Amino acid sequence: MAKTRPFDAAEYLDSSEAIAAYLSEAFETNDPSFITEAIGAAARARGMSALAKDTGLSRENLYKALSSEGHPEFGTIMKVLGSLGVELRAEPKVAKVA
Q: Which Pfam families match (predicted)?
């Protein structure tokens, strides 16, 4: 039997462009739990210790806040995204054609 390991997106997020594309896809789901988990994967890709130092937040709090069960404050999200080299942007919704 072949041995497999769980998929971890963090292994593939090796640039700000890759992180931005991954998070953009996550935002389109409108699923807060999935979005938080995606931001956590991007954070792990960059390294939680470096991220903690850059944001002034503890590693433990980052791990907890950025898990699928986490409920991070918006300020935490903004600090993390800034440290990851990405930013949020607002765009008008595109109307779906019936």
A: dnstrm_HI1420
Amino acid at 71: H
Q: Which residues, at least 6 apart from 19, have a Cβ–Cβ distance to it below 8 Å? A: 13, 42, 45, 46, 84, 85, 86
pLDDT tens-place string over residues 32-59: 999 999 999 999 999 999 999 999 999 9
Is residue 43 packed enough to be buried (19+ CB in 10 Å), middle (13-18) or exposed (0-12)?
buried
Q: How far apart are CA 18 and CA 12, in angstroms?
A: 8
pLDDT in tens, 58-78: 999 999 999 888 899 999 999
